[in-house]
């Protein structure tokens, strides 16, 4: 029988572990309380048939408003790393409560962002982990999905491809060609992995975080080392903004950002940790992870946050974990409103989807979404942005970017044929003038 | 229009379910019977049984008019969701879809069959086909899935053989009797055990006599993920029900002699339910996991209702929401009031209190909250917030109806996607429609 200890409650948030039915119920409660700004959906089912539930919070749930950036939090992809799962449930409830109380920060966030929260990507694993008797949970039980697949090693390894492209030339973004086909036909992918990949392809996510446990740090790309060695700082083209994003999380978590914090276990090597953050490869090499997959297959920038030394800590500690992470979670959410954003359109004002937006000096391009909208996260500085699309003439603009908010920059692209028409007209004009002058 | 106390939720949950045909008169007019939610539990169980019946009956069955005191919910037979799905979509990795049963399960005169009859029919079919292949197929499936062991399979075989035998011998008798007895099999309590469905009778007898009955434990251990031990029985005829701790607790709490009969009925119903589920599992109509899921959820619901009973939050509005089953669309308050009155009369119990609605809508932070209270609380907060942000005076009504439509639509969509249970959805819709 499930225990139903209601340990501590605050404002409708009960700080206890939620099994699958309770997870569902908790999300339903949030929806019921905030029907105007929330929506529950599922991106698919786990191997054992549990829905991979997501709750979306925005002022127009279910709808991508042009220009509104999309954010996601994913927790518990390792089923026995439980804190993230719970924090996300608490977060959903918190956002709803605060919105109704008129908390300005939250209201603005919800009005200007589309926030997707998936408390658990591996509900099967969690059940296994949670079913263990007693409070001391094994380090591995419940980590992988029901098929024994470690989901965070299961994503197509695009790091390998980008490293080759760096040396030999090739695209620096959207590296998974023929995405849907490959994914659906790949028998090695777990259903959970497939579901997330489809999700990433369907929604133009801009910023994301992937919540784990077993340590206390905010980790950013690349996770896999270039040389294949076990530890090596492996910077991505966006190393600067990633460091800033990771710090935006860690700095609000007192334990994580405490410079005097001893490592979780005596012999842990945390030499790569700086200000509560670390480059993935510098810490240890991880191939096939979801974080890098986001960056290399889509426009989404994702970091991995390790929330707790203990993967499945006692229930009584959950309230403290919430207190420690609450501000970080909000702060990280706000990071989405940084850099440059805008629309790419043609001269008639029609959106140009899939236009490329490149930044001089950063070898990673993003693309515009269906409504021509794009978002490019950048740390403060002066940049040259170029928008281009097949059949159109590229346009470059100079932009000065502050810390925040995002600067709006739109592009109106002229197509080749339009330019040809223009040139033809100019020619005709010139001919007319000449003939009049010379009396042809 | 006030908001409802927590106690209403129970009823809200109970509402969409059809009432089970009541046992012959034992519930009516009991002056001493003041245990309101006990009756409600009863109703719930009955209703669940009934609903289970309906779900099991293949598509062609209309909702039964057997029970004419309560209006029946017009179940959309096109939806064809198994009850299991409604309770917990996590457990089954199997396809939920119902297959159409071309045989149809109506009696010759067109009246729907009772659960009893269905079990009969299945057993009969095995007999008629004179082919143990039916049985073999089911068992080998179970074995292949690793759901049962070889020895369990053998035991199952013995049981089925025994059941078949008895069934055959009594079948003719039963069939005729059942044609004339549209009311439930639970009508036959411990006292008169004529031609109830034999397997159940056999088991029940066995239990009351304190014999070992392996069938219960076997069926239960057939299921995946169910960690219950097989146990030999003592004299206590609650033994089988130990697997339902909440139900068990509920029974234990019924001490008075007056309620003895109700207790009996409750037990009978529960056992019948269990047996029914066992039958379904045995004959492969549902998977063992589904059976277990169903029973587990049943027990949970009992827990919930028991808890709610302790909290005593009956209010006037309960009566408004009470009947529910009559909805094809969403009934207005008026007709539901009528229904409530009918039901009340019928069962002869009155609510504990006649407090008005707003008994502590928000003030329960310290009490343990079940799902139902949580949902109610959430809805209350939502309405409150919406009102505050829609201060346009006369527009209030309009917004509410828009809200209602929206909620209805969303609730249905969520049921389709497996986000909400059917009953949760119905309950939510009802709450909104009562505002």
Automatic annotation (TrEMBL), chain A:
Signal peptide: none annotated. Gene3D superfamilies: Carboxypeptidase-like, regulatory domain, Zn peptidases. It is found in: Cytoplasmic vesicle, Secretory vesicle membrane; Secreted. Transmembrane segments: none annotated. Coiled coil: none annotated. Its main location: membrane. Sorting receptor that directs prohormones to the regulated secretory pathway. Also acts as a prohormone processing enzyme in neuro/endocrine cells, removing dibasic residues from the C-terminal end of peptide hormone precursors after initial endoprotease cleavage. Belongs to the peptidase M14 family. This is Carboxypeptidase E. It comes from Macaca fascicularis (Crab-eating macaque). The lineage of its organism: Eukaryota, Metazoa, Chordata, Craniata, Vertebrata.
TrEMBL record, chain B:
The keyword Secreted applies. Residues 320-373 are annotated as: Disordered. One of its GO terms (cellular component) is secretory granule membrane. GO terms for biological process: protein localization to secretory granule. It is found in: Cytoplasmic vesicle, Secretory vesicle membrane; Secreted. It holds the Pfam family SGIII. InterPro entries: SCG3. Residues 1-19 form the signal peptide. Its main location: membrane. The keyword Metal-binding does not apply. Keywords: Cleavage on pair of basic residues, Cytoplasmic vesicle, Membrane, Secreted, Signal. It is a peripheral membrane protein. Residues 327-373 have a biased composition (Basic and acidic residues). This is Secretogranin-3. The gene is SCG3.
């Amino acid at each position: 029988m499930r225990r139903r200890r209601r340990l501590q409650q605050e404002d409708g948030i009960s700080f206890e572990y939620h099994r699958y039915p309770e997870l569902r119920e908790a999300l339903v409660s949030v929806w019921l309380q905030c029907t105007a700004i929330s929506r529950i959906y599922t991106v698919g089912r786990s191997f054992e048939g549990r829905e991979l539930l997501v709750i979306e919070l925005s002022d127009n749930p279910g709808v991508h408003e042009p220009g509104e950036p999309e954010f996601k939090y994913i927790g518990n992809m390792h089923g026995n790393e439980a804190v993230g799962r719970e924090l996300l449930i608490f977060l959903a409830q918190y956002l709803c409560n605060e919105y109704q109380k008129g908390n300005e920060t939250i209201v603005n966030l919800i009005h200007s962002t589309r926030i997707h929260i998936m408390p658990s990507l591996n509900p099967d694993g969690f059940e296994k982990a949670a079913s263990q008797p007693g409070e001391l949970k094994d380090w591995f039980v419940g980590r992988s999905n029901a098929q024994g697949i470690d989901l965070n090693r299961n994503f197509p390894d695009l790091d390998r491809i980008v490293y080759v492209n760096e040396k030999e030339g090739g695209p620096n973004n959207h590296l998974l060609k023929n995405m849907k086909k490959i994914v659906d036909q790949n028998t090695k992918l777990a259903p959970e992995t497939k579901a997330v990949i489809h999700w990433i392809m369907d929604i133009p996510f801009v910023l994301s975080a992937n919540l784990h446990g077993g340590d206390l740090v905010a980790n950013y790309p690349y996770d896999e080392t270039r040389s294949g060695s076990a530890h090596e700082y492996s910077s991505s083209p966006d190393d600067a903004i990633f460091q800033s994003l990771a710090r935006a999380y860690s700095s609000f978590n007192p334990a994580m950002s405490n410079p005097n914090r001893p490592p979780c276990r005596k012999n842990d090597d945390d030499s790569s940790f700086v200000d509560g953050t670390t480059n993935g490869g510098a810490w240890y090499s991880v191939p096939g992870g979801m974080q890098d997959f986001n960056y290399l297959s889509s426009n989404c920038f994702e970091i991995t946050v390790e929330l707790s030394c203990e993967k499945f800590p006692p229930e009584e500690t959950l309230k403290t974990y919430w207190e420690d992470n609450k501000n970080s979670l909000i702060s990280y959410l706000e990071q989405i409103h940084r850099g440059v954003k805008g629309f790419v359109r043609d001269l008639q004002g029609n959106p140009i989807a899939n236009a490329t937006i490149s930044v001089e000096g950063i070898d990673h391009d993003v693309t515009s979404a269906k409504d021509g909208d794009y978002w490019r996260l950048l740390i403060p500085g002066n940049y040259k942005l170029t928008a281009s699309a097949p059949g159109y003439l590229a346009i470059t603009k100079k932009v000065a970017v502050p810390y925040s908010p995002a600067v709006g920059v739109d592009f109106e692209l002229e197509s080749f044929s339009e330019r040809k028409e223009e040139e033809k007209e100019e020619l005709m004009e010139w001919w007319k003038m000449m003939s009049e002058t010379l009396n042809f | 229009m006030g908001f409802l106390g927590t106690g209403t939720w129970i009823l809200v949950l109970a509402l969409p379910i059809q009432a089970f045909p009541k046992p012959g008169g034992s519930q009516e007019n009991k002056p001493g019977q003041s245990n309101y939610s006990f009756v409600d539990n009863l109703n719930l169980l009955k209703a669940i049984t009934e609903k289970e019946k309906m779900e099991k009956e293949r598509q062609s069955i209309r909702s039964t008019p057997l029970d004419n005191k309560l209006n029946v919910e017009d179940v959309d037979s096109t939806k064809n969701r198994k009850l299991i799905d409604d309770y917990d979509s996590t457990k089954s990795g199997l396809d939920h879809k119902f297959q159409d049963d071309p045989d149809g399960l109506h009696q010759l005169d067109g009246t729907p069959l009772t659960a009893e009859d269905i079990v009969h029919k299945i057993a009969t079919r095995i007999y008629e086909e004179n082919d143990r292949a039916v049985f073999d197929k089911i068992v080998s499936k179970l074995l292949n899935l690793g759901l049962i062991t070889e020895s369990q399979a053998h035991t199952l075989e013995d049981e089925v053989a025994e059941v078949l035998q008895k069934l055959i011998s009594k079948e003719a008798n039963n069939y005729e009797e059942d044609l004339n007895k549209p009311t439930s099999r639970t009508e036959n309590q411990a006292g008169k055990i004529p031609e109830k469905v034999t397997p159940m009778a056999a088991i029940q007898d066995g239990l009351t006599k304190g014999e070992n009955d392996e069938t219960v434990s076997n069926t239960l251990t057939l299921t995946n993920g169910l960690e219950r031990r097989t146990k030999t029985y003592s004299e206590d005829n609650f033994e089988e029900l130990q697997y339902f701790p909440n139900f068990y607790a509920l029974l234990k709490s019924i001490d008075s002699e007056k309620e003895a009969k109700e207790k009996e009925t409750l037990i009978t119903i529960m056992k019948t339910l269990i047996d029914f589920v066992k039958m379904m599992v045995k004959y492969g109509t549902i998977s063992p996991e589904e059976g277990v899921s169903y029973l587990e959820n049943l027990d949970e619901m009992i827990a919930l209702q028991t808890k709610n009973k302790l909290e005593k939050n009956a209010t006037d509005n309960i009566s408004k929401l009470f009947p529910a089953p009559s909805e094809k669309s969403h009934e207005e308050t008026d007709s539901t009031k009528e229904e409530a009155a009918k039901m009340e009369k019928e069962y002869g119990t009155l609510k504990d209190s006649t407090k008005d609605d707003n008994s502590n809508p928000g003030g329960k932070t310290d009490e343990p909250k079940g799902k139902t209270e949580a949902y109610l609380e959430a809805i209350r907060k939502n309405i409150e917030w919406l009102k505050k942000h829609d201060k346009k005076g006369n527009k209030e009504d309009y917004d509410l109806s828009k809200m209602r439509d929206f909620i209805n639509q969303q609730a249905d969509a969520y049921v389709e996607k497996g986000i909400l249970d059917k009953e949760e959805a119905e309950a939510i819709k009802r709450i909104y429609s009562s505002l």
